[in-house]
Q: What sequence folds into this?
């Protein structure tokens, strides 16, 4: 399990545990007061049944993640909860003032937004009104106390009930962000494939067509075209590696010469003028990309006879203009087109791009970029930031609850004014405010990092704020002991923090007992300290964990993008690497045959043309999704390619129509890579391809007698590693190495699923 998963799991478990304990303390406190004032068994049983019903509704309906809180069942449960809160008040007025908090919090969860806060306010106000009805002598401060306590309890119930679903919601948002990051990475790859490889393959196609016409009549020029085809094919192989790894920095000078060569080969009269200031690498790359795309579009979409390319600029701006006399019927600026990609590139560095057809039948592509672009920001960082709602919610909730506890304690302190006087009020106010300030300003903030000595100092200061007023005036209600307990659990190591939490809670019970309070009040003191401590601990930890989970979306998205990048690199290697290797091999063969056997040379060029067109299709398929290869087509292609390389090939293939699709695709990929490696790295004269299948296993062997010179080298990053990953994903295995017969074997074994 990863650290991210552990955080997620701990967050959910912590939410459930804290909800259960805090709610149980609220209910247990009420039950203790029932025992104190209602000793008869029927009354005790009735109160216990009501309290357990409140707990059941709260945990199983209102606080349960995934519950439909807008359903009729939820409204019925809310009505039942209202009855369980208000009806028992007539029989247990002294024990029930803590229960309206459940109804107030649940109303926030269930009711529509236009009435939920109104209902919340009415419920909390009703608590003070009802208590003044049962205790006519209750002072105003007492009424305020009951209203504030119900408000705080309602916020605690609402917040803790929402937290599990918020953690789950955040996890879902992180998954969506990862998917979006992968989609954006796919668009980046698609753009780079279009900009880089699309140009190269289009140029190869154009030059192959030209060379095929020239062979036999203008052999010398045909040989020059073949040499350029080889150069472009090798450069395209470099582009494959560059696109698969990262953003490629293009050479503007090289692109200018390439554009001149391609346009001349296409019979387009080219005029190129350059006079510009020194460019930053990124600006230079953008201009080179614009030049590539402009020339590519000219060759694909127009019938131009002349083209003028001007790169000029002084000072801070440099522009490129590509003007030709073959304006297309319409300018395609749909999303995903090369022009849109170029506009995005230019805009990203503070530039601009325009394309338009003139009235005189010309077509102009104009781009302008700053000579010294701002430092490149990785495109991976363009991922949108997810909503901070859970983080904000926890922060606001924690602050509200802490302030609510402060106000509740303040009402208790003011009620003791006659006994402790003005000095006592000031001392207690300093203690309560100091405690709250330390909790909100230091203890509960995830960003605050403290040494152990600083933590101990903070706790010592908080202990003074908590205990001095209580011990000075002999009144356990004059401090926020639970805040000290929760803070100890937060800032100290767990093996020390939790024993300290328990010790502080017990100390509150001891202070109640030493000052002559009853057992029920001692129990209340322990429960109140436990509740306050757990709420502070839980909301602070959940704030920290939600923040960590929120930040972990970047980690998750980065991992997802990295995985997608590996997939693209693998597919580029398996698909385009094969095609470009085949183009290179056949072009070399044609180069040798051009003067010896023109007819055979033209035939080979026809196959190169077909491979080039297929490679263009592969560019699109790799950019969009995984390409499903045909094993039969790959077998025929391998035979033709090996024969063209003068390698004697023997193929023995069992019927494979019944094999699962993913198995056939993987075998086709293995065959492609095996043949590609054979052609690249060995001098084989014989090759045998054997596919055999049984009920439970399919095996493919590619054996040749040309031991590769790279056998002793590391396989890191090689196609064999990619194939191993593919085969093992299906539960199989792949082996490559020498055989006792001094041949080289590539074997793939894939288990077949049981029918």
A:
């Amino acid at each position: 399990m990863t650290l991210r998963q552990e955080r997620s799991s701990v967050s959910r478990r912590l939410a459930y545990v804290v909800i259960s304990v805090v709610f149980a303390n609220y209910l247990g406190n009420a039950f203790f007061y029932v025992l104190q004032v209602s000793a008869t068994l029927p009354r005790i049983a009735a109160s216990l049944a009501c309290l357990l019903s409140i707990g059941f509704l709260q945990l199983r309906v209102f606080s349960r993640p995934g519950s439909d809180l807008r359903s009729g069942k939820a409204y019925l449960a809310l009505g039942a909860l209202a009855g369980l809160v208000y009806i028992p008040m007539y029989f247990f007025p002294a024990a029930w003032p803590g229960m309206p908090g459940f109804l107030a919090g649940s109303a926030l969860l269930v009711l529509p937004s236009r009435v939920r806060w109104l209902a919340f306010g009415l419920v909390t106000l009703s608590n003070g009104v009802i208590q003044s009805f049962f205790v006519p002598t209750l002072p105003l401060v007492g009424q305020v106390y009951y209203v504030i306590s119900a408000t705080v309890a309602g916020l605690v119930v609402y917040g803790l009930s929402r937290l599990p679903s918020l953690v789950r919601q955040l996890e879902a948002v992180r998954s969506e962000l990862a998917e979006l990051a992968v989609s954006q990475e796919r668009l980046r790859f698609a753009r780079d494939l279009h900009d880089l490889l699309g140009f190269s393959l289009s140029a190869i196609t154009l030059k192959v067509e030209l060379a095929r016409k020239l062979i036999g009549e203008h052999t010398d020029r045909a040989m020059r075209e073949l040499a350029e085809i080889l150069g472009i094919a090798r450069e395209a192989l470099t582009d494959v590696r560059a696109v698969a790894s990262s953003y490629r920095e293009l050479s503007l000078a090289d692109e200018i010469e390439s554009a001149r060569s391609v346009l001349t080969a296409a019979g387009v009269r080219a005029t190129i003028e350059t006079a510009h200031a020194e460019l930053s690498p990124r600006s230079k790359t953008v201009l080179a990309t614009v030049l590539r795309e402009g020339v590519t579009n000219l060759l694909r979409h127009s019938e131009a006879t002349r083209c003028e390319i001007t790169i000029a600029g002084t000072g801070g701006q440099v522009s490129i203009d590509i003007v030709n006399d073959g304006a297309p019927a319409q300018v395609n600026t749909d999303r995903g087109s090369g022009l849109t990609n170029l506009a995005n590139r230019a805009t990203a560095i503070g530039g601009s791009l325009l394309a338009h057809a003139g009235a005189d039948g010309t077509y102009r592509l104009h781009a302008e970029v700053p000579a010294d672009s701002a430092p490149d920001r990785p495109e991976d960082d363009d991922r949108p930031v997810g909503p901070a709602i859970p983080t904000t919610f926890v922060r606001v909730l924690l602050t509200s609850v802490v302030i609510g506890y402060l106000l509740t304690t303040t009402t208790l302190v003011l009620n003791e004014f006659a006994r402790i006087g003005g000095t006592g009020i000031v001392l207690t106010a300093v203690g309560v405010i100091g405690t709250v300030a330390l909790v909100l300003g230091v203890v509960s903030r995830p960003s605050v990092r403290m040494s152990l000595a600083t933590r101990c100092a903070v706790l010592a200061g908080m202990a003074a704020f908590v205990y001095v007023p209580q011990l000075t005036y002999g009144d356990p209600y004059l401090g926020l002991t639970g805040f000290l307990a929760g803070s100890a659990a937060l800032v100290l190591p767990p093996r020390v923090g939790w024993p300290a939490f328990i010790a502080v809670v017990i100390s509150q019970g001891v202070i109640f007992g030493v000052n002559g309070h009853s057992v029920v009040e001692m129990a209340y003191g322990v429960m109140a300290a436990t509740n306050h401590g757990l709420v502070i601990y839980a909301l602070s930890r959940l704030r920290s964990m939600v923040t960590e989970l929120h930040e972990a979306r970047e980690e998750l998205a980065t991992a997802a993008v990295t995985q997608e990048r590996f997939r693209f690199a693998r597919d580029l290697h398996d698909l385009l690497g094969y095609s470009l290797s085949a183009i290179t091999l056949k072009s070399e063969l044609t180069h040798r045959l051009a003067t010896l056997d023109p007819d055979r040379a033209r035939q080979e060029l026809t196959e190169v043309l077909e491979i080039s067109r297929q490679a263009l299709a592969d560019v699109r398929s790799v950019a969009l999704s995984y390409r499903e290869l045909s094993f039969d087509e790959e077998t025929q292609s391998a035979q033709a390619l090996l024969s063209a390389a003068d390698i004697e090939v023997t193929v023995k293939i069992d019927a494979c129509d019944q094999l699962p699709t993913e198995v056939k695709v993987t075998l086709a990929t293995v065959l492609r890579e095996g043949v590609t490696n054979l052609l690249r790295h060995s001098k084989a004269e014989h090759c045998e391809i054997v596919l055999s299948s049984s009920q439970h296993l399919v095996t493919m062997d590619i054996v040749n007698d040309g031991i590769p010179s790279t056998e002793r080298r590391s396989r890191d990053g090689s196609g064999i590693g990619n194939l191993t990953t593919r085969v093992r994903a299906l539960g199989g295995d792949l082996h490559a190495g020498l055989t006792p017969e001094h041949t080289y074997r590539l074997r793939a074994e894939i288990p077949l699923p049981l029918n």
